[in-house]
Amino acid sequence: MSTTGYNESLLDHEAREADKPAARRRARRRPEPFTVASHIVVTLFGLFCLIPLWMIIAGSFTDETVLARQGYSLFPNPFSLAAYELLFSGQSLLNGYVASLFITLVGTILSVSSTASLAWVIARRLPWISRPLTVFAYVPMLFHGGLVPLYLLVTQVLSLSNSWFAVILPILLAPFLVFITVSFFRQLPEEILDAARIDGAGELRIFFQIVLPLSKPILAVLGLFYAVTYWNEWFMALLFVSDPDKYPLQLILQNLIANVTNATSLPGATAAQAAAPVYQLRFAMTVLTVGPILLAYPFAQRFFVKGITLGATKG
Amino acid sequence: MTRNFSRRHFLALSGAAGLGAALAGGMPQAFAAGLSGTSLTLLPSQAPSNWKAVLDKANAALLAEHGFTLDAQFINWSNYGQQSLLKFTAGASFDTALQALWLNMAQLQQSGSLADLTGELDKWPNLKAQIAPKLIEANSWNGKLWGIPQVNSAGRVQHFSIRQDLAEKHGFGEIWDFDTLERYFYTIKEKEDGVTPFGIGANSTWVLAVPTPTGMFNQQSWEDPTRMQYLFAGSGLRFLLAKDAATTGSSKPIPFWEDDGVVAALRKIRKYHEDGIINADPFNSDSATIQSQFQAGRIASIWSMTDGLASNQLVGLRKAVPTASLAQVVPFGKPLSEVKPVQTFQADNMVVVNANGGDVDRALALQDWLSVKQNHDLIEYGIEGTDWEAAGDDSLNQLSQYAFPGYALLWRSALERRSSFMTESEKAVFDWAQDYDNFATDTFASFIPDVSAVKQEAAQMNNVIIQHANPLFHGLADVDAQLDKLKSAADAAGLNMLQAEMEKQADAYLKARG
């Protein structure tokens, strides 16, 4: 009995010993209550954000009569491409994408270049130069010349009517972003710059080969902000571009939605226009416009957060 | 140098000048006027689907006939007002644009941005033949014409477009009078689940109460459609002027809330709101949303105008309700042949000429050219055979998506064609609205109040109306309590000054017209 009892207790002990790491592993694996709660909250918040987006996508594929009768649903039933057919049957969306891409790419490159250059000069605290440039960048944050002077400047002085640069130039430089960049540049270690100077580097070489490579986070932030601004820009195009073949995507869609919205109540509309799918079209337009720029966020995300926080810690 | 200019040169020049003059005598008037270049016009909405082909064809004809071409810049409706104002203000180069009192026409006229067209029409026979003298007279401001009125009917009367299939389903025949219409509303509410009897958007609910000459739910105005409302700018406080002003010479303007018929209408609207007769969310519904709901079969009746457009709804409606039919209920309570409502004949839309960057002769030459049926059809309906085909003398079948905003450039009542899908009910109303003799001219027909003396008060009053009157027009507030708030806010905003100025100007108008 005793032997048997001893053997049993030994076996139990060994088994307990053998189970210890596994128990520890299990204990380690067992999620903390806070982690569980935070996962649930984040998941719910994620759904809270994603479901409306999904409903917009589903709505853009749902027949207008059902949308008007029953409201939104999670799945398109009955499935309808009427809004997309209308969108793609109007003015050439391809032209619009080309225009928007040109404005976004060229505009972003020009804006990032000029913002970084101006911010660097301000950040250097050069006598007689930095302070006037600071004022130059600061004043437009407070005051605006007004629409008529801007219109006269672009159309009559710069003669940029019907040019995509008329969309780019008026919003080339965002003062707020200049000051964010200045803050970032001022955090760069002065020793690195001094070392470069001792090695014989000039100001331009320091800027291009030392400062810019160290400033990728803020450049990514600038790029993202400017790209989103240029991609969404339609008002400057409305002001200065009158050739429909040069309309950016946003203006084409803005025109389309405004005209369909008004077609139902205005004389001169055809019956087909009066019967255009208003709800469905609004959703489809949202899908088409947010889609491409949404893709830019994952690429810039890691720089985005880092750049903002780095720039914000030192004034 | 003077020696070089010999007698021979002089004779040669004189001969050339004489030859030129002789040739000009046999040429169209525009060529004689030396027209050239491009007549750019600002238009709302967007370019029609086949616009380039149509424009090429039109320009070939225009160039041969008049020596200039046409071009159009389309600006979407949401931005048209602001953009056209900006272009006028900045002195941009264009000939014509759509303007109206509900846009910025008064402001542009006061700032000298519009060319004076008084007497100019006499030079253009085709144009003159298409614009009725009554229309010119009613659209002249203090005797001066600042734009070419664009209308497709003589009178404009707001009315109801109702689901006639539902009316017949529930035992209603043709609806004429207010009481039957009200019964129709309550029957729909009771027996048609999920259908709102009447839907209206947020933009212009004042039309439900204030007479122009009828308010849609203003029963008193149904019985006596003899008053129009007047106001200082495109929106704001609406005044009603004395009915006997023509005989007494005194306008005695009152704000709309002092009229018994309007107050009764406001009470009715409030009741309809509480009973679910009117859509519950008028503040959040734009007209497009209401039309969409109507076409989906969720609303049984909506606002319409006598512009031949109401039947357009049927195309979308029959997708959701294949058996649907429409009827027009005009708010007079009796057959159209028995009524003669007043009208100002002031056009909702005008083509104005840019005084600073435009060419008056070229603009009017274009208007003249567009007053010829063949040219009018080309621009308004597109290329015959491709975009449309004739159906009888005055109707058309559309073959493409071509849709030109004719009201902004070339509406001529006698030249307009009707859609082949226009319902019989609407045809009857539209036919009636074509004849000036079916209407009486309002005492203050061409009276355009000038806001400059009370600009500040008018702006303040505009805010008061938005804040305190719109809830009344929507039926969202208790009538007595809200009227008290409205009156007190209006007093604070300068009601007395606005009323006195309106009276002064209206009386002066009466005196001037004799």
Explain the overall architecture.
Chain A is an all-alpha fold and 315 residues long. Chain A has two domains: 2-83, no CATH class; 86-312, MetI-like (MetI-like fold), CATH 1.10.3720.10. In chain A, 76% of the residues lie in helices and 0% in strands. Chain A is built from 17 helices and no strands. The longest helix of chain A has 31 residues, at 93-123. Chain A starts with a helix and ends with a helix. In chain A, 33% of the residues are buried. By secondary structure, chain B is of the alpha/beta class. Chain B has three domains: 29-153 and 346-418, Periplasmic binding protein-like II (D-Maltodextrin-Binding Protein, domain 2, 3-Layer(aba) Sandwich), CATH 3.40.190; 158-200 and 284-340, Periplasmic binding protein-like II (D-Maltodextrin-Binding Protein, domain 2), CATH 3.40.190; 202-278 and 449-514, no CATH class. Helices cover 42% and strands 13% of the residues of chain B. A five-stranded mixed beta sheet of chain B has the order 2-1-3-14-6. A three-stranded antiparallel beta sheet of chain B has the order 11-7-12. In chain B, helix 18 (455-474) runs antiparallel to helix 19. Residues 18-28 of chain B have low confidence and may be disordered. The chains are: A mainly alpha (315), B alpha/beta (514). Chains A and B meet through helix 3, helix 7, helix 14 and helix 15 of A and strand 2, helix 4, helix 13 and helix 14 of B.
